[in-house]
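quick one: iron/sulfur cluster bound model?
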Amino acid sequence: MEVAQINFDRFNVLRDEEAQERIRAARAKLGKQAVLLVHHYQRADVYQHADLTGDSLKLARLASESEAEFIVFCGVHFMAEVADILSKPEQIAILPDLAAGCSMADMANLAKVERCWRELAEVLGEAPDAQFTPVTYINSAADLKAFCGEHGGIVCTSSNARTILDWSFAQRPKVLFFPDQHLGRWTGHQMGIALEEMCVWDPDLEYGGLTPEQIRSAKMLLWKGHCSVHQMFQPAHILRWRNKHPDGLVISHPEGPFEVCRQSDYVGSTEYILKTVKAGAPGTRWLVGTELNLVSRLAEEVKAEGKIVEFMSPTVCMCSTMQRIDPQHLAWTLENLAEGKIVNRISVPEHEAVQAKLSLDRMLAVS
Ligand code: 13P
Ligand code: SF4
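yep, here:
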């Protein structure tokens, strides 16, 4: 099959309905050759084409089990990388728009994590591998997963973070957690680790902005990273809503700020949020702290049971990068595939993929 450099421009001007028709036609032609894996944050006009949907963990597993020649990932870059790493060598992972990244994943990079590791070695007087398990949230580039693979570390997602941290502390007494400080802090708190034992490592400052004593006594070092979508949710939003709806239930994603998670009735991954609200009693009212596409779709789905689902923030919080996967890009990708031309392949270099797979396989085995 030809690897194509094909211009997207003529698809950019496609009307939505035409793009939808062309998606359907290309899919009919491709049949089982292509599988569409779609994350829960995906916009409705793309979500409707999903073969399979899920949170990051479920989609990683589905990618590893798929037999399709093309895994078309409607999500963000790190998810398509995981699909490439976990699928068979002959399978091809595709991201319909290469600009669909994750701003949180970009908050850590290999140079900064290696510098952190060197500075830890200086302070500890030995390789940090003896004391720290490096844990990367799946929202990170493949070379960071490879770093964890090489240093006896592991990957986690929002749905298995607790299990993964239990495993990590069973290996060594401390954890370096990147890039999402909020998921790390919330999970540590759930395990009974005191907030004072979790220090924020600021990668833009020498020694993370910490004193040698703080580094030596910390149980967890939390990378100073966050999700720009989830940081919009505030405890005040919950308070205002609870005042109006004292019987209402609040559910949040653990990427939200610590106080938001603490004041929520339930905290969990996108898949967990969907399952919990769908399993809720008829007539219940929910405030949901995660991305707007998911919340709007959920509100529609449970309306018939008399459930009311409301969005936590008064401002629009969408994952703007995931939003880039639109019907035009999907039509362009699938039509090219149906014509035997591969566009937007995500291919992790072999040397990185081998080490990254180690840390991903550890995660899949543990969770
Ligand atoms: P989930 O694994 O819960 O789907 O979360 C992924 C993500 O990026 C949330 O912002
Ligand atoms: Fe990344 Fe936040 Fe988008 Fe999730 S919602 S993919 S963490 S930018």
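The chain has a mean pLDDT of 96.
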